[in-house]
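Notes from the 1:1 (GR / supervisor)

We went over the backlog. Supervisor wanted to see one worked example end to end before approving the batch request, so GR pasted a single chain during the call. The sequence is below; no edits were made to it. Supervisor asked that the structure be written out right there so they could see what the output format looks like.
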Amino acid sequence: MTARCAVLALGMLLVAGPQAAAQEGPVWSWFATCGGPAMAIEVRLDGATICKAEFPVCHADRERVESQGQWIGKIRFSFSPSRSIIWKGYRDTTDITKAGQVLKADLWQAGADPDDLLIGVSFSDQNTIYMNTIHIAHPTRRDESEIAKGLTVVTYPLTNGSEGKK
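Structure output shown during the call:
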């Protein structure tokens, strides 16, 4: 099972006006540089890492991140699992993808909150979206979401060589 992670720069700015930022206070944004910490995100199948990416995070008012002209990154990769995957909970029906079937994954910042990042997670093939969900990532601790049985998204802060292990 091989996968190649790609971090894409998209021409989208965070959306919220200065008035919302003043009322809300600082929020977390990924791929934004303000001298803040860094995080890692891993997608794992049966404990094996199929994609890992590292990115800076910034805890600042939305307008500050916008004024820096920060771009929202997107992590995109494809992989061919060595076993079938059962997809439940997104569509009305349960879907099963076969071993060796090429799947595409997209990860993006879906929201910015004062205490966490909302990361959009989508798995699909050429014809079907099998899962489209949210992973909640706290920049100060490890978080794990099971997307399908054995398929997980893990995020953790990168400090002093932390590896995100349990």
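Supervisor's comment: Residues 6-158 form one domain.
Batch request approved.
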